[in-house]
Description:
This protein is mainly beta. It contains no helices and 50 strands. It has a 30-stranded mixed sheet that branches. A hairpin with an 8-residue loop joins strand 42 (424-427) and strand 43. It starts with a strand and ends in an 8-residue tail after the last strand. The model is unreliable at 33-64, 429-434 and 540-544 (pLDDT under 50).
Amino acid sequence: MGMNAVSGGLIKKGSKDLTIELPQGTSTITASNLGNGLGISDSAIGFDEETGIPPAAQPDQNAPFGGLTVAEGTLRLIGMGSGKTVVDQKHALLIGGGGALDHPATLEISGLRMNQGDSGVHCFIGGAVSAGSAATNSVLRVIDGAYFDADTVNLARKPHDYGDGRAFANHVLAVTNATVSVSWVLNVGNNSDRDLKGSFEIGEGGVVEVRGTCIEVQGGIGAAVSGGGILRALGSAGNTESGYGLYFQNFVWGELNFDNGGILDVRAVKSSRNIPQAIPLTLNFDGGIFKVRGTGAVSMSSDVEKRTFNVGANGMFIDVEDAASRHTVVMPVNGVGGIVKTGAGDLFFAKCAQVREEITVIENVYTLNCEGVSSVKAGSLTIESGAAREDLKVSVAQGAQLRISGDQTLGAISGGGTVTSGRLTSDIAGDPNGGTFVVENADAAVSALSCTINRKASDTLEADEVPLFENIALSRVVVDFGAVGDTELKAGKSPVARIGEGVGFSPSVWKSVNRPPLTTADFSVEDGVVYAHLEKSGMILIVR
């Protein structure tokens, strides 16, 4: 295998495109004679004012370029395949920006593996620009089976000073049929420059992943992820920025679009409480997938009016893959499409708000405001009080669960399975693809539901404290006489449900379980209230 070495760094300038075809083997680009080459200064240190290009040597550790700089035009590096052609690129990589002049700049790599930087050095897509320059875009494009491995990637991180005539700049990380893997952190935007945005364009077969901590956003952000492309940040455990995966800080603004199978794969989404003003930020899903990881993770925002999930006509798929996972969504969910929950883990739509890293339940904060049909394919989904609406339709697959707590009125429920809570459990019958629907509120009204109710009845309950059912076909109702706390159930009559319009009563469909020893139970309806009659008996009948 041959080796090509450039020990003094490589600078691409001029507006014309340059294509370099690399043979099988390893090519090494270093910057050994350029000092540490660790970063990009905010001023034009070492730049020629006429050309905007640094000299051949720069001993300062704030040198505005490192091993590889694309100052203008397009540089294409083409290999024979990521397993055959390797580029070891040392020290900092800079695409565009830096100095008095700012030119459109693109680095495109295909068919090779590029190992970018040693520990502690970075890739900059869009560098610092000094006053008087025009705004242009910088692009890192990774395509055709390439693998780009970096320590840290900074996307539109360095501020732009355009003087009196400020203009908008958008720096892009574009990936198709290739992988960009970041071992530590991916930084997007700059919190002092609102005319600067970093964008992801991830298409079919494209993966942008952060293995170490998170994607941290401090300014403008955009994303177009589709066709199975993945934006992934694995994060780490703990209630810190790095524990979330996708972390929005300060005045972050923009839109992230996940369409046609585009995937956001993170431990959670967090929007900082330190937002100086209410600037809209939306995560739009139109046939896209929100895949979440980790037990006890919470997707939250301190400004729920401006930080939202939006669901398009093709719906939003939420995948909680691990059965041990429990994920809570605090940010509002709005739109015209339905939500499909998949994965064996538990998902909660919560009526909460974040206060100093804690989750506090408050009124009228969370809304689940989607038209169409929401489906629970696996695991469980919990919607807390106030999150659903009257025309929300939910279908529940076999083995899955849907839980509703608080005062709720739902539209239609379809499927088959079991509903469980401290108040009632409902098995949805009649649909071979059905699942579990859980209602935790004692005053819930649902329609088009055939269910089994699990009620831990107590003789201390009043008739207005039990669940209300309307327009329900009660094909099987099970009353659970398990003790509530330390209260021992006594013989006598206990209310277990209220029967509203569209609900008939047949004693034959009501059954009892977990009765005290030597007791029997039967059921009656009086003035729209179903009562369980618990009586002492001299025998126990067990049917197996």
